[in-house]
Amino acid sequence: MNFAARQTLVELGARWAEAALSPAVYDARIDAPDASDASLTFVKHQALMRAYQARYVLLPSDPPPTGVLALLNRHYGADRLSNLAQLRWDLEAELIAPLVGAPGGDVAAYTDAMLAEIDAQPTNAFVAFLEQADHRDDHYRNFLVQSAPDLLAEASASALGVVGEFGEPQSALFRILIDEFGYGSYPRKHSVLYRAAMRSFGLIDEYNSYWPLFDTSALRTHNVIHYLFQNPAHIFRQIGFLLFAEAAYQRSTAAHFRYLREFHPTADARYFGEHAHIDLHHSRMIIDEVVAPLVAKFGQDVGGEIIIGAELTKHAFHAAGEHVLGVSQAFAAAGPVSYGLPDDVRRAVGRTVTPSSDLCGLGGPVLIGAIGTLADPAMIADFPPDTVGRLLSTETG
Ligand SMILES: [Fe+2]
Ligand SMILES: [Fe+2]
Fold first, then answer.
1. Which of 144, 219, 366, 389 has the fewest CB atoms lying closer than 10 Å?
2. pLDDT of amino acid 397
3. pTM (2 decimals)?
4. Of the bound ligands, which one is closest to the alpha carbon of residue 182?
């Protein structure tokens, strides 16, 4: 932790706070870190998320009363974009590069072992928790919100990996991409199906509406994915991401689909049902039409890079899954608590606290993700280290 980096983040945060009342998609705020290392890491991940978000098009669902052009030009202005671009490389080196493992092994053998491991997995631990939990809706809402940084713009990261000119596997990747975009039919676009799932749990479905609730784990997952796809040098690692993600996602979405059908029969589960089906095909396409020909052409060196990307993805997904379960378990064990979210999250929340923040003298309830509030802020000390809570704002009550 160095002072210059902390100070830079505080100054940029103050500048971007001007966008607070913008439509959600252009709300570019980051938090001011408190004295804990966990808080500084969290804010660095927020800044890295802002850097990555600045690389793709966002328009609000409803036209702003003042028109969209001034907002668009401010959000993607040269000054802001160059600040973000400068920060990005240092933040990636500090936050993401240490997660990258060493290459090694034969990618065909790796793939066989990976598929066998995914097949042999026991039931989804979060779904198993939900099945016996009280307040399932609240826990599921948090799962949807913490997954939203990537899924509400699903495949926008991987789209950045498809542009260019790199041979036949590029066209296989493009065919997967157009499935992710609903094959040109907006209602079938995966991010739109995800919006419908969120709405059916009473959540706002606009991109970036819940950014104040994203915890360090949610931001890290988003940032790992964009670290891979926003750098063309990572093309083989990107393919490793897809190799693992398409295979594993098919299984986890099938578990969620069954859970939703049984326990939330009125919820919109199409997002999960679609993936449980189509990712079987995507997984085969990556293995047969992308990995195999690229390794045949460029050799096992690139196979090693593919394995690096797959392993990075596996660890990121695993950590995120453990974390979201750990937060729900800690909340279920805490007391006194109340379940539910404030109506307007972007206005209602105040400063953040982490399990290692100085909690002395803090009053008022602390909101934990989209689950609900702890009556006593000190209770956050028993939560997983990547948890981020929010005091409710004193300004709005
Ligand atoms: Fe998808
Ligand atoms: Fe897919």
1. 144
2. 36
3. 0.96
4. 1
223 DSSP 8-state letter? H
Average pLDDT over residues 22-43: 94
Q: What was the pLDDT predicted at 206? A: 97
String of DSSP letters for 122-182: -S-HHHHHHHH-SSHHHHHHHHHHHHHHHHTTTTHHHHHTT-S---HHHHHHHHHHHHHTG
Tell me how far apart the alpha carbons of residues 169 and 160 are, in angstroms, rounded to a whole number.
15
Architecture of domain 101-333 in this structure: Up-down Bundle (1.20)
Looking at the chain, the whole-number percentage of residues with pLDDT higher than 90 is 88
* 246 CA → ligand 2 middle, Å: 5
CB 23 within 8 A of CB 69: no
Whether the per-residue pLDDT at 371 is higher than 80: the answer is: yes
279 alpha carbon – ligand 2 mean position (Å): 5
Is the distance from CB of 354 to CB of 31 less than 8 angstroms? no
User: For residue 27, how far is its CA from the centre of ligand 2 (angstroms)?
Assistant: 29
CA of 216 relative to ligand 1 center, distance in Å: 23
Gap from CA of 17 to ligand 2 centroid (Å): 36
What DSSP assignment string belongs to 241-310? HHHHHHHHHHHHHHHHHHHHHHH-TTS--HHHHHHHHHHHHHHHHIIIIIIHHHHHHH-HHHHHHHHHHH
- According to the model, what pLDDT value does residue 394 have? 62
Domain definitions of the chain by residue range = 1-95, 101-333
* Cα 176 to ligand 1 centroid, rounded to whole Å: 9
- Ion ligand 2 — residues with CB < 5 Å: 279, 282
Ligand of minimum distance to the alpha carbon of 157: 1
pLDDT for 15: 85
The ligand minimizing its distance to the Cα of 176 is 2
